[in-house]
Amino acid sequence: MYEELRLNIVAEEPAVYHTYKDRVFRILFKDKKRLLELYNALNDTDYTNEDDLIVNTLENAIYMKMKNDISFVIDSDMCLFEHQSSFCPNMALRGFLYFADLYKKYVKDVDLSIRKKIMIPAPHYIVFYNGLERKEEEFTQKLSDSFENGKAGCIELTVRTININYGQNKELMEKCKTLAGYSFFVAQVRKNLETMKLEKAVEEAINTCIERDVLKEFFLVQKAEVMAMSIYEYNEEYVKKSLYEEGLEEGEKVGVLKTLAKNMESAMRNFHISLKEACEGLGTTVEEYEKAKNIVS
Questions:
Q1: Where are the alpha helices (DSSP H) in 74-215?
Q2: Containing H/E element for 241?
Q3: Residue 69, CB half-sphere, CA atoms under 13 Å: how many?
Q4: Do residues 161 and 140 touch, judged by C-beta distance below 8 A?
Q5: Where is 82: in which H helix or E strand?
Q6: In which region does residue 53 sit, left (phi positive, over 0), alpha (psi from -120 to 50) or beta (all else)?
């Protein structure tokens, strides 16, 4: 029965690939060899056959804006890996909804009323966090934390969040060179942003990685793509952190809105997308863009 169910979860590739909606973390670990390396590092296993790992990422889970997730089945585990650059208190709820869809796909067309017990892989949800709000090396979130009035319920889901900022979780980084390389790259971008504009900061970070043999082959082959994704990603992070920040002086607000308008236009020009798509990707609205344009014009 288990093997029959596994046949239902072969991933379907999306018909159209939108670079601007993807992220460097996800592109790195879409590669099954790197993904297997990460799984082994987390679980102290030594799998070597990439075919043991079946990717079942739900590419069209747009309603949750889950752009960074990677889900897969290996042996008796169903894993959901997601990257977050800012703290979100709703990860457990997102994971609960996502796993529900994964298991629906897993037991597709199986009669759940049969008398034989249907065995399913155990869920494991891990978030790789490199935001600046939380400093712990690792922390957990639980679905029950979202239950109203602190009431107990019959369902629980636990999210394990691992801090992957440079210098954190050194033992894990030593086991997974890909994750360590990504951590170093992000640290270089942030360091460069102190003295450089975004595009230059990303380009210099990539060049530093190549010079130091950090994910060298990846960056040599996909430099242009990584540049585009990173610029969009950091634009999005800036908008989310700045646009709705309280206590800004009037001059600062104008500066934020000016940057927002510039980011919108840059995204539309560089990725050949509509205003609506650019706003969606940067976590804002057409109304906010028009407001920004009116203020700074």
A1: 91-106, 170-175, 177-192, 198-211
A2: helix 216-242
A3: 23
A4: yes
A5: strand 77-84
A6: beta
- Longest CA–CA separation in the chain, Å: 69
Given a contact cutoff of 8 angstroms between Cβ atoms, the answer to whether 186 and 130 are in contact is yes
Tokens standing for 271?
Answer: 């990725």
**CA-atom Rg of the chain in angstroms:** 21
At CB < 8 A and 24+ separation, what contacts does 271-278 make? 271/18, 271/19, 271/20, 271/228, 271/232, 273/18, 273/20, 277/20
Coil, helix or strand for 88?
coil
Please provide the distance, in angstroms rounded to a whole number, between the alpha carbons at the two ends of the chain.
64
With contact defined as beta carbons under 8 Å apart, do 163 and 134 qualify? yes
Q: What is the pTM of this model?
A: 0.77
**Vertex 230 angle, CA 273 and 165, to 5°:** 145
pLDDT for 173-214, tens place per residue? 999 999 999 999 999 999 998 898 888 889 999 999 999 999
* Residue tagged 């790259």 (tokens): 185
Rounded to an integer, what distance in angstroms lies between the CA atom of residue 259 and that of residue 243? 10
d(CA 246, CA 256): 12
